[in-house]
């Protein structure tokens, strides 16, 4: 590939099953050493493109040419469940096809790059969500690939982690392609954008930074809308004239027929304008009234320098009280939330007969072998079919998804199922651990409004300041202080 391209798609087509085309005769190339953003609507096939590049799946038609000397590594969105019981050493050994001798020094070096410090015999599942995000990144970097593919790498990362990752990508001298919903993060390094058009099934290349590409795409949509408006006007004029001439009879009927044919031709020539992703409906998480104190926290335990530290505190949550838990990755926020949700946290007491709604960032509260329907039905005190289906539809869980197994959903769809569960559960106490992860950014204002208006007691952990600003917070507990 002498023209400087390290990846080239030539007339590539791909389908998911028989009824879902993803790509149709797609052409694009990526130059060696470039920093590229891969963007598109939910379900457009961004992760599919990554799998085609790595060779995990094959195109139905066309050719994908990768520089034969180039190595490829992927940092996925989540650590596979079967890897959670592995030690750090075993986890990194999985990154290589062949056995790597004396791997410990390599692990130590790469963990420094992602600003994570841990012994190599520590179990993966013991790490926080943010630390697992760093492990995923490190598992790709340790391979020192010529092509680095990052799928939502900022999920779970705190501010410091995002800054660290941004600096790394800017200094990375090899090819990097990133999928992310974090606009500021993308704009800091992007030199070009590959945009998956979900309607034409093509990939469009835009040169420039991320914000430049978004402006160009918006301008193209406006142009398509104007063009269609002109077509609509002419189509209506032709139909009106055709109706007029048809009533005249004789030769005028032939003219009317020709005008109808022209109107049909113009309708076929209308551009399929890219529409916005569908957005979830506004929703409310019902609060069955509870009087008095719902939750009391008199002490909590966190990790500092790999040691447990217990701190005294006085937090009392009643109805309409929202608590924000803050602190850096690895201090133990998720562990604390889990122990509170299970009623096992020392120094914490939940009042009797309190129903707890727990949104966990890794979705491990969901049964991956259950269907969506059964998962939603299981949390309802009284099964009402109409209510279940109405709530599901509001979260874009359509009839073709509702009998799908949870494990076969995308991460974003699992998040919407988890929120639908909370609505049907009707909790007194809401515990939310990074509820923005994997969720389409268009849904976030609606989710924020629902949490802001929630009338029960709530504990929230989120590393997304723009999201937190939209929610009423009555008290903040910084675990790092």
From TrEMBL:
PANTHER family: ATP-BINDING CASSETTE SUB-FAMILY F MEMBER 1, ATP-BINDING TRANSPORT PROTEIN-RELATED. It holds the Pfam family ABC_tran. Residues 7-223 form the ABC transporter domain. Residues 221-276 form a coiled coil. SMART domains: AAA. The keyword ATP-binding applies. This is ABC transporter domain-containing protein. The lineage of its organism: Bacteria, Candidatus Campbelliibacteriota. GO terms for molecular function: ATP binding; ATP hydrolysis activity. CDD domains: ABCF_EF-3. The keyword Repeat applies. Keywords: ATP-binding, Coiled coil, Nucleotide-binding, Repeat. It comes from Candidatus Campbellbacteria bacterium RIFOXYC2_FULL_35_25. Transmembrane segments: none annotated. Signal peptide: none annotated.
